[in-house]
Design a protein that fits this description.
6 strands; six-stranded mixed beta sheet; 12 helices
């Protein structure tokens, strides 16, 4: 086999073309507003299950993008997710992103209260910034705490909830959907066991790119191909 080297942009463009083609072959109908996010999740994982498992609250993408200029801080539940979010895109909106998993105060609260660091980090972030958006790809206890906080009156800017795993993962995601619906919070969730920090970062990047920060939207090409079949 001969090795062929391509520029990263070319690889991504060809990958998106393949994803578009396979979505058409599978007869997947995805609302145009959500398509960039779904395709980015598939691109990140090579898993077409995300065409069916990603849940979007009403107008989630447009509402999340609109919130980018509102001054909210992005809070992640892992440093891996934080590392994967495009910093150039964040800076174009003046958005600060952070993770408190290694914070000493969070560690102390977790040990004292018998909770997880992810659980305590959510409350600590709300105390630190007031207005925040939450991006979770790892910890179901982060979603549980966010649900509690909303019941207590806190209102996140938006939530991306895509933890991966087997324990409390499915249940926490479904509770997040119900709670966000009750309080009209924009949310994107990967239903079921699948997800992860890379998926969380990929979804976030898709929304940042979709807002016009430098990446080309894939939706128009996909829709045009459907019309031409």
């Amino acid at each position: 086999m001969e090795t062929r080297f391509c520029a990263p942009g070319e690889i991504e463009k060809e990958s998106m073309r393949i994803i578009r083609q396979e979505l058409l072959q599978k007869n997947k109908t995805i609302p145009e507003e959500n398509l960039d996010v779904v395709m980015r999740a598939i691109h990140t994982t090579a898993d077409f299950d995300y065409a069916d498992s990603l849940y979007f609250s009403k107008d989630a993408c447009s509402r999340i993008i609109k919130s980018f200029t509102d001054g909210a801080v992005f809070v992640t539940d892992t440093n891996m997710c934080l590392a994967g979010i495009n910093k150039k895109a964040l800076s174009s909106f003046g958005i600060k992103a952070c993770c408190f998993m290694a914070d000493e105060t969070v560690a102390e609260r977790s040990a004292k209260n018998g909770t997880t660091r992810a659980y305590e980090a959510m409350g600590y972030a709300a105390e630190s910034f007031g207005k925040a958006a939450f991006i979770s790809g790892n910890a179901p206890t982060a979603l549980m705490r966010l649900c509690e906080m909303m019941e207590e009156g806190y209102r996140p800017s938006f939530i991306i909830g895509v933890p991966v795993g087997f324990v409390n993962v499915v249940e926490s995601k479904e509770e997040l959907i119900r709670t966000c619906k009750r309080y009209d919070i924009p949310v994107i969730v990967s239903r079921g066991r699948k997800g992860g920090s890379t998926v969380a970062a990929g979804i976030t990047n898709a929304l940042l790119y979709k807002s016009g920060t430098g990446d080309v939207s894939v939706s128009r090409n996909y829709v045009n191909q459907r019309d031409m079949r």
